[in-house]
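User: Structure with thymidine-5'-diphosphate, tokens only please.
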Amino acid sequence: MNCNYLAFEGIDGSGKTTFIDEISLKLTKLSTDFKIVREPGGSKLSEGIRELLLSHEYKVDPTAESLLFSASRAQLIEEIVKPSIESGQVVITDRSAYSSVAYQGVGRGLGYQKVYDLNDFAIGSYWPEKVVLLDIDPEISLSRQKVADRIGSDEVSFFKKVREGYLQLAQDFNSKFLVIDAEDSQQNNFRVVSEWLGLEES
Ligand code: TYD
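Assistant:
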């Protein structure tokens, strides 16, 4: 695999989890030493923050939301991601700081650059090396969702903004982003991603 820290991104219901499962099977076949983490979460403290963030029980102000996501991320990076990469493992993350730029920065309207800078502070510039963005129309992705958490149950208009945020990120960081049409055949998409990551079987 041609990178050590890979993120899967996309709006709720874009099919990230299925994709990560496929990649895991492939990496296992290739005997690659890898670890999968998810955001928010991935460490004990971060999973605690995840519960606060996603429960329907709390009313969460957008700034507080953004700070909680970045706190959860700061802990995950220090406790798990950095040591894993330093020990030679590949880390694959289900969401990353780019989710915050799209969801809190653009979706909630806190500001793309402001949330980018907040996260840069939180993770000490430990941004994923490569990002696969599963792009999809929110009307379609939301209809696929079975159970929605607090953020996932927001309105379509919110997810339209989040999608625009993601596409802006892909444009601004085009050398590290691969944008995939999540409505295309999964098999074909998987082939494109595998090739981009240099996952050929020997
Ligand atoms: P997640 O379990 O990742 O859901 P999904 O399977 O839809 O990806 O849920 C995380 C929710 O939190 C999801 O609605 C996206 C949102 N989120 C943010 O708003 N900002 C962030 O920085 C992250 C990591 C997630």
